[in-house]
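User: Please fill in residues for this 487-position structure.
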C-alpha cells in the first residue's frame, strides 16, 4: 500500500498546515517529522502546534459550543451517520495512512478503519436516545425530572497505536452528546487524525466543533487546556504514567476526566479448553497490531496438562508469521512504532532469557526498520520481570499453572486491570474465572474484546470511565434534575 497512493493521500492532507481551528487549517513556525516505522524515513512534516494554537482551538470550540449543543439529536445523529458512510467509503485511503505512519499490516489497518467507523455509526444511533426520567418523590408532593446536558468543551488526547479508532471513540460520543472538542493526536501518527477531521467536515460538522492541534509539546499544550476554565472535560487514552499526570492537573479545576490507560492482560487456558481454539485466539489477542494494543495478551497462563500441546500449536503459528513492511500485502506483522520501542522490547526478551526463559519459537524479521521478531517464551517463572509491565510488542511469555488459587493470585498481581482472556471447556468454569479476574473486559473463548456497543475500559490503574456502549456518551454529559412542586 506504500505506493504513490499513499504519497498522494499524505500530500492531500497538507499536513504542514495541519492545525485545524474553526474550520481553517494553519501552519506553525516549525514543523515536526512523521516517520515510516518500516524504513525510519520521513514521510511527512506536520505543523507543530503551540500553546497559542491550543488557546485559539479552545476559543473556537467554546464559540461553537452554544449552537452545537442546541442542535437536535437527530441532526447530530445524521451527521455522524454520514461520517460513518464517508469513512467506510474511504477505507483504502485511511488504511494507507495508518500503514504509513503506524506501520501495522494492511489487514490490521483495514480492520482498524472498520472498527473506528463503527463508533460513528453506534453513536449516531445513541445520539437520538435522549433518555431522562420522571419520578414521584417518596413523600409525594414533588415531582422530579432527570435530564442530561453536554458537559462542554472537551479536550481529547489520543495515542499512536490505534490512530483512527482512538480518535473516533472519543469524537463520536462527544459530538453525539452536543460537546465541541479540541483534539491532540499522538505526534507519531497525526496524519490519520487529520484525515478524520476532513471526513467530519465533509459530513457536515460545523466549523469550530472539531479542532485539532498536532504538536511535539504534548505536556504544555494539554496542560494549557486543563488550566483553561472553558474546558470542562478531558478524555485521555495512553499510558498509565501520563494518565496520572493529567488526573493531577484535572484535580485543580475538578475537570471531568475519562482515562483509558495501560493494560497487562492475562490469557488463561484451562485443562479442558479447546487448545486449537485457544491458539487461534492467542494469535489475535497477542499479535494484532504487532502486540501494540492496550488489550494485548501479555501473559499466557496455561494449565500443565495442555501446555505442551498449546506451545506446539502456538509455536508453529508464531514461527510462520510473515513479518515485513505494511507496503507488502503479504505482511501480517509490521515494525514497532519507533526505534526506542523496538529496542525496549528486544531488551525485555534478552532480560527474560538471561533469567531462564527459553525461546520456544521465533519468526523471521527484516534486519532494517524497527522490527522485532515475534517470539514465544517458555520456562517463564510466575514472578518474572517480563510479566510485570506492558510488553507492547510481539512477545508471548508462557507460564504453567496447576492450582487455580495460584493462577488467580498471579493473574491479578498487577496494578493493571484492563483486559483478560479465558479459554475453558465449561462455560461455568470460564465464568467463575472471569468473575475472579480484576479486568474490565474478559474475552471468553475469544481473543478479541473490542466492540463499539460494549463498555470498553479498565479497573484498577487501567483507567476511569468507559468508552463505547451507552455509557460512552454519558461520559460527555452532565446529569441535571428538576425538583417540581406538585401541590
Ligand atoms: P503515551 O501516554 O505516551 O501518549 C498518549 C498521548 O498522550 C499521546 O498523544 C502523547 O503525545 C500524549 N502525552 C504524552 N505525554 C503527555 C503529557 N505529559 N501530558 C499530556 N499528554 C501527553 O502513550 P502511547 O505510548 O502513545 O500509547 C501507548 C499506551 O497507551 C499504552 O500504555 C497503552 O496500553 C495505552 N492505550 C490504552 C488504551 C485503552 O483504551 N485503555 C488504548 C490504546 C492505548
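Assistant: Residues filled in for all 487 positions:
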Amino acid at each position: 500500500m506504500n505506493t504513490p497512493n499513499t504519497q498522494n493521500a499524505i500530500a492531500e492532507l497538507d499536513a504542514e498546515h495541519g492545525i485545524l481551528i474553526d474550520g481553517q487549517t494553519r501552519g506553525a513556525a516549525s514543523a515536526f517529522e512523521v516517520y515510516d516505522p518500516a524504513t525510519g524515513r520521513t514521510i511527512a512534516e506536520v505543523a507543530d502546534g503551540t500553546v497559542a494554537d491550543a488557546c485559539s482551538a479552545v476559543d473556537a470550540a467554546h464559540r461553537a459550543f452554544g449552537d452545537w449543543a442546541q442542535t437536535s439529536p437527530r441532526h447530530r445523529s445524521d451527521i455522524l451517520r454520514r461520517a460513518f458512510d464517508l469513512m467506510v467509503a474511504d477505507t483504502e485511503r485511511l488504511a494507507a495512512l495508518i500503514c504509513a505512519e503506524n506501520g501495522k499490516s494492511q489487514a490490521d489497518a483495514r480492520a482498524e478503519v472498520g472498527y473506528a467507523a463503527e463508533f460513528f455509526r453506534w453513536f449516531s444511533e445513541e445520539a437520538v436516545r435522549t433518555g431522562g426520567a420522571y419520578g414521584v418523590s417518596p413523600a409525594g408532593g414533588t415531582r422530579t425530572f432527570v435530564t442530561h446536558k453536554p458537559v462542554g468543551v472537551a479536550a481529547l488526547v489520543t495515542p499512536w497505536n490505534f490512530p483512527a479508532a482512538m480518535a473516533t471513540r472519543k469524537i463520536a460520543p462527544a459530538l453525539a452528546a452536543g460537546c465541541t472538542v479540541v483534539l491532540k493526536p499522538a505526534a507519531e501518527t497525526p496524519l490519520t487524525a487529520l484525515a478524520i477531521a476532513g471526513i467530519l467536515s465533509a459530513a457536515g460538522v460545523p466549523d469550530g466543533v472539531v479542532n485539532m492541534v498536532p504538536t511535539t509539546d504534548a505536556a504544555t499544550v494539554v496542560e494549557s487546556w486543563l488550566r483553561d476554565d472553558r474546558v470542562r472535560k478531558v478524555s485521555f487514552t495512553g499510558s498509565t504514567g501520563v494518565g496520572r499526570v493529567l488526573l493531577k492537573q484535572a484535580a485543580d479545576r475538578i475537570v471531568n476526566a475519562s482515562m483509558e490507560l495501560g493494560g497487562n492482560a492475562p490469557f488463561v487456558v484451562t485443562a479442558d479448553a479447546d487448545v486449537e481454539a485457544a491458539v487461534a485466539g492467542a494469535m489475535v489477542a497477542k499479535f494484532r497490531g504487532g502486540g501494540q494494543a492496550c488489550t494485548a495478551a501479555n501473559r499466557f497462563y496455561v494449565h500443565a496438562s495442555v501446555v505442551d500441546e498449546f506451545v506446539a500449536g502456538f509455536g508453529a503459528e508464531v514461527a510462520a508469521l510473515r513479518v515485513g513492511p505494511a507496503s507488502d500485502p503479504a505482511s501480517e506483522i509490521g515494525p514497532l512504532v519507533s526505534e526506542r520501542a523496538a529496542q525496549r522490547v528486544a531488551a525485555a526478551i534478552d532480560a527474560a532469557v538471561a533469567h531462564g526463559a527459553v525461546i520456544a519459537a521465533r519468526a523471521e524479521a527484516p534486519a532494517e526498520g524497527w522490527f522485532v521478531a515475534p517470539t514465544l517464551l517458555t520456562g517463564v517463572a510466575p514472578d518474572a520481570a517480563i510479566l510485570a509491565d506492558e510488553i507492547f510488542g510481539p512477545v508471548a511469555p508462557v507460564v504453567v499453572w496447576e492450582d487455580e488459587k495460584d493462577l488467580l493470585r498471579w493473574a491479578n498481581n498487577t496494578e493493571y486491570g484492563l483486559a483478560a482472556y479465558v479459554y475453558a471447556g465449561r462455560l461455568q468454569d470460564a465464568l467463575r474465572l472471569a468473575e475472579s479476574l480484576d479486568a474490565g473486559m474478559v474475552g471468553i473463548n475469544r481473543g478479541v474484546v473490542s466492540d463499539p456497543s460494549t463498555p470498553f475500559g479498565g479497573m484498577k490503574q487501567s483507567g476511569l470511565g468507559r468508552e463505547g456502549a451507552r455509557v460512552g456518551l454519558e461520559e460527555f454529559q452532565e446529569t441535571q434534575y428538576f425538583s417540581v412542586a406538585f401541590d
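For context: Residues 157-162, 166, 184, 186-187, 218-219, 222, 237-239, 242, 245-246, 260-263, 294, 390, 418, 458, 463 surround nicotinamide-adenine-dinucleotide (CB under 6 Å).
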